[in-house]
Amino acid sequence: MTYDFLHRPRRLRMKTRMRDMVRENHLRHDDLIYPLFVTYEADAKKPIASMPGCFQHGLNRIGEVCREIEGMGIPAVILFGLPEHKDERGSSACAPDGVIAKAVASIKQACPSLIVMTDVCLCEYTSHGHCGVLKGEEILNDETVEILCREAVTHANAGADVIAPSDMMDGRVAAIREALDAASHLYTPIMAYSVKYASGFYGPFRDAVESAPSFGDRRSHQMDPPNRREALRQARIDLNAGADVLMVKPGLPYLDIIRDLRNEFDVPLAVYNVSGEYSMLKAAAEKGWLDERRTVMETMLAFKRAGADLILTYHALDLARWLNEGDGA
Ligand code: PBG
């Protein structure tokens, strides 16, 4: 028997071609930014146990690694450094011959048109693993910002295309903008980790760059997870300070925040699909509990649907391969 229904949404779902035509969101290679860990141990390719498929890459190998990444169609990487020396003030973050400066230079030589972004923070460079200079157990804000400015200029001098401060110190975007301009880097954009929550999902990353804090946590500067309104305030401060791209981090647990920022601001939005989000899917896929390709693609489309333009993700290489095979959406 046939009912006389006027509305049958399934009409548009019956054929693959038709579904493709009415699809509202798409993932493209140009949406992807691939995070990379670079170590001073020049020839190393060290697997990261909690992030299957990710490695610490040595300085001698990083150019070649990036050539391959660009060859897959990925337009950008973001670099995190493992320095030879750590100290109380994270001094090696500002060294012109430090691991990131060297990595940027060799990537620029190997593949000049790949967009190279650098993470600006001190936690990878301090002996105590905190994001800034300490006085007792307190992170000193303004003293830290001064060092971050020098770190950012060091990266830009080495050829970095985009500076991405992830430290969450107050006032750092304004100060870094001023420092970049003073060093004639007028056209080097800042992608601000503006809405960065104090999240448990960063666990595997801290293994990857050996930056777990030796005491305490990061709640004195990163945002409190239950807060939503505060995200708009933090984003507005960074925008007024000259941020070119805003970022929300982590991704999946904060889709509402991405949508809030999308509705409120008109700059490009990035989302960081962080290490713990990656590891969860990888672990479930390894156990055969989830279909990796399907769930990773679905996750990326959730970011696009929420309003993100750019996605920092450790899945980027797999995604590029799947897109090249005609997957995607
Ligand atoms: C700080 C920084 C962190 C991440 C990116 N930049 C760690 C932290 O705030 O503790 C986390 C990224 C991830 O989990 O994938 N330099």
Helix and strand arrangement:
Blueprint: H1 16-22, E1 32-39, E2 45-47, E3 55-58, H2 62-71, E4 76-82, H3 99-110, E5 115-120, E6 134-135, E7 138-139, H4 141-158, E8 162-165, H5 172-182, E9 191-196, H6 203-208, H7 229-240, E10 245-249, H8 255-264, E11 269-273, H9 275-286, H10 292-306, E12 310-313, H11 316-324
Parallel strand pairs: 1-3, 1-4, 1-12, 4-5, 5-8, 9-10, 10-11, 11-12
Antiparallel strand pairs: 2-3, 6-7
The structure holds ligand PBG.
Structure in a nutshell:
Helix 3 runs parallel beside helix 4 and helix 4 (141-158) packs across helix 5.
Total of DSSP H or I helical runs spanning 4+ residues: 11
Q: Find the count of extended strands (DSSP E, 2+ residues).
A: 12
Unreliable stretches covering 5 or more consecutive residues: none
The name of the CATH topology is TIM Barrel
Radius of gyration: 20 Å
The CATH H-level homologous superfamily: Aldolase class I
CATH class: Alpha Beta
Structural class: alpha/beta
Sheet with the most strands, sense and barrel status: 10 strands, mixed
Query: How much helix is in the residues?
Result: 25-40%
Distance linking N and C termini: 36 Å
